[in-house]
Amino acid sequence: MKLARIVEAIAPRPESPARRTVLFPWATESGVSVSLDVLVLPAFEDLPGLPGELTPWTREYDLSRTVEVDGVPEPVRYTKSGLGVVPTGIGKTAAATTVTALLGSDRLELAETLFCTVGVAGAPPELPVGSVVLAETIVDWDDKCRFDPEDSEDGPLAGNPYTGEAGVYDLDPGLVDRARGRTGNISLRRPDSAADSARPTVTTGTNLCGDELWHGRELAAQAAWLAKRRDRDPYRVTEMEDAGTARALSRFDCLDQYLSVRGVSNHDRPTDDRSARESFFDETFEDGFAVGIANAVAVARAIVDRPEPGPDRRE
């Protein structure tokens, strides 16, 4: 069974001090079809003024091998030992399109691949910036019906009568538990501006995903309402890609091969008396991106990785 193989693979193994090898060492290349055992899915690399989600992987691994896939804007970079990385693009549509193209391509063999989204996210203020969330469930924030606020005392949101209970993706609990078990010894970075705040932590929970970029107390209350209505409350992080990724994987019967690892880069509402607009456009709002990315990558590497040479000692 593919799931049994993946879950077994992320169980702890004795480490070799001689080198670092990807935890899944059996990837091979046959003809034009590249077999990958781990495929890391960051969202972006080239947003002005922000650290890229791809950079930590190209810095730490020999990803000089590439394969072009129709419908994917960038080549899939991969190591000799079977770890691949490719940005999906920002948003659910971009993520779903990229992942569908990858799964439908004859250039890649992904039947037993572990798919792993690794990137930043917003979070409620109770979760410190720099914390990392392994998703247990992904809830599609856009799968709802919205009304004018003054229309009813019931509030501006309701369930979508045309999609029923769609938009909820429960990830494989055994896989998530195994992954969480490999993160106990990780030392997470803290933002320079948050020396006196609570320490970041690794946790699990609901990941709320939507194409709409939002920030504010009232919107956070609506997000909490949706998570509760779906019986997946409380939500732990908010982001913009993973429901698209999960939808594509589920269409190909691969959702049980998926992990989402999100580092908290900012809070999803003001934490002081400023307005939401003032908070969002404050010059310090993006200060947590570097820490969020670094910690998400550290957790992801603990899950899929073993000691391996750096770029100066490449295979």
Shape: globular
Strand count, sense and barrel status of the largest sheet are:
10 strands, mixed
* Estimated structural class: alpha/beta
Spatial extent as radius of gyration: 19 Å
Any overview of this molecule?
Helix 3 (92-104) packs parallel to helix 6 (242-251). The protein is of the alpha/beta class. It has a single domain (2-10, 20-306), classed as 3-Layer(aba) Sandwich (Rossmann fold), CATH 3.40.50.1580. It has helices at 2-9, 55-60, 92-104, 173-181, 217-229, 242-251, 276-280, 289-304; strands spanning 29-30, 33-35, 38-41, 65-67, 76-78, 83-85, 108-109, 114-123, 132-140, 145-146, 157-158, 168-170, 202-209, 235-239, 258-267. Strand 1 (29-30) and strand 2 (33-35) form a beta hairpin. Mean pLDDT is 87; it is low at 11-30 and 307-315. The strands form 3 sheets. Strands 3, 4, 5, 6, 8, 9, 12, 13, 14 and 15 form a 10-stranded mixed sheet that branches.
What structural keywords apply?
alpha/beta; 3-stranded mixed beta sheet; Rossmann fold; 8 helices; 315 residues; 10-stranded mixed beta sheet
How do you describe this structure in short?
The protein has helices spanning 2-9, 55-60, 92-104, 173-181, 217-229, 242-251, 276-280, 289-304, and strands at residues 29-30, 33-35, 38-41, 65-67, 76-78, 83-85, 108-109, 114-123, 132-140, 145-146, 157-158, 168-170, 202-209, 235-239, 258-267. The chain is an alpha/beta fold and 315 residues long. The protein is globular.
